[in-house]
Amino acid sequence: MASPGPRRLYWEEVEVGAEYISPGRTVTEADIVAFAGLSGDYSVLHTDEEFMKGTAFGHRIAHGLLGLSIQSGLAQRGIAVQPATIAFLGLTWRFEKPIFIGDTIHVRARVAEKRETSRPDRGIVTWEREIINQRGEVVQRGTTMNMIQRRPAG
Questions:
Q1: Torsion (CA) 124, 112, 82, 24 in degrees, nearest 10
Q2: Residue 25 burial by Cβ neighbours in a 10 Å radius (0-12, 13-18, 19+)
Q3: How far is CA 102 from CA 13, 52, 79, in A?
Q4: What is the DSSP string of 42-97?
Q5: Closest by alpha carbon to 28, among 104, 106, 133, 101?
Q6: What kind of fold does domain 11-149 have according to CATH?
Q7: How far is it, in rounded angstroms, from Cα 20 to Cα 7?
Q8: Distances (CA, A) of 64 to 15, 70, 91, 103
């Protein structure tokens, strides 16, 4: 007999206003090097410490898209029962402050809205998300939208 798999949170069970806090994660030199290799973004902002000493930042900074990517995984770790996600639909995002090597970030996610679709087996959930560093500063924020499975009939 096949295992039914892990418990998942259906659209009907998602509550507007519910808030989730992820565990923290420290951004490392290895993260930045790996992301540069994966993305092909070898900008001096991320790869040249000597150059960056003469800038307003004073040090290399993490790629903004690296922070966005890390938040996606952290946000999932903040929810005990994972939503029955069908698809990621889009986002609006702001990069407010830099993320430095050694910063420990976590994500605060809040269900902002949910709505039905024309299909009875799915709905849309909009999340407000913030990436917060160890100093309590919001370094990135935005909204994401996911298509979530509705509870199967029966």
A1: 140
A2: middle
A3: 37, 16, 25
A4: --HHHH-HHHHHTSSS-S-B--HHHHHHHHHHHHHHT-SS-B-EEEEEEEEEEE-S
A5: 101
A6: Thiol Ester Dehydrase; Chain A (3.10.129)
A7: 18
A8: 30, 10, 14, 13
The token pair at 10 is 């259906």
> What are 52-66's pLDDT values in tens digits?
999 999 999 999 999
Residue 143 in tokens: 């909204």
> What would the pLDDT profile of 63-95 be if each residue is shown by its tens digit?
999 999 999 999 988 888 889 999 999 999 999
Dihedrals φ, ψ of 44, to 5°?
-60, -25
- DSSP letter at 17 equals T
Phi and psi for 43 in degrees, rounded to 5? -55, 150
Q: Which residue has tokens 């960056």?
A: 52
pTM given for the model: 0.91
Query: H or E stretch including 38?
Result: helix 29-39
Sign of the torsion angle spanned by Cα atoms 56, 57, 61, 66: negative
